[in-house]
Amino acid sequence: MSDTKNMNDALETKTPVTSVRIADDVVSVIASMAASEVEGVGGMTGSLAGDLVEKLGKKNLSKGIKVDVTDTSVAISLSLLMEYGYKLHEVAKNVQKAVKNAVEAMTGLTVSEVNIMIQGIVFPQPEDGTEEETQTSES
């Protein structure tokens, strides 16, 4: 009987340990989806090259998001367009909460910070059907 116990102990110690690594792009997409669902968010802003790629047909769900993932935590920075008429600090606070909750729930990582950079305001679309106007700040 003691031989069986020793054999089981040996099997348990030889079981390989595995790890899961979550790509930065996955975290970016989760953060983007969470942020875009918050009322008052008019869109995401990205780099000039990223905007050009999107105009050519490839949708970039992680546009305007910078993610820094360590072993157990993640820091996220988002560049957003806000809709006109909303209190910017309240929308930013709601985005921070939504992104933190979504990333932690879906990845198991701890979100250490969610930084919001408001890059511009999106004005309501006029009734005559012309394109939406956006005002952005130059950084």
Strand content: 25-35%
Q: Oligomeric status of the shown chains?
A: single chain
Compute the gyration radius: what is it?
Answer: 22 Å
- The coarse silhouette is elongated
Question: Structural class, judged by helices and strands?
Answer: alpha+beta
The number of distinct β-strands equals 5
Instruction: Please count the helical segments.
Output: 4
Q: What is the element string, with H for helices and E for strands?
A: HHEHEEHEE
User: What value does the average pLDDT take?
Assistant: 78
Descriptive notes:
This protein has 139 residues and is α+β, with helices and mostly antiparallel strands. Helix content is 38%, strand content 26%. The chain has helices spanning 2-13, 24-36, 48-55, 88-107; strands spanning 41-44, 65-69, 73-83, 110-122, 134-136. Strands 1, 2, 3, 4 and 5 form a five-stranded mixed β-sheet that branches. β3, α4 and β4 (110-122) form a beta-alpha-beta unit. α2 (24-36) packs across α4. The longest helix is centred in the last third of the chain and has 20 residues, at 88-107. The N and C termini lie far apart (73 Å). 20% of the residues are buried. The model is unreliable at 47-55 (pLDDT under 50).
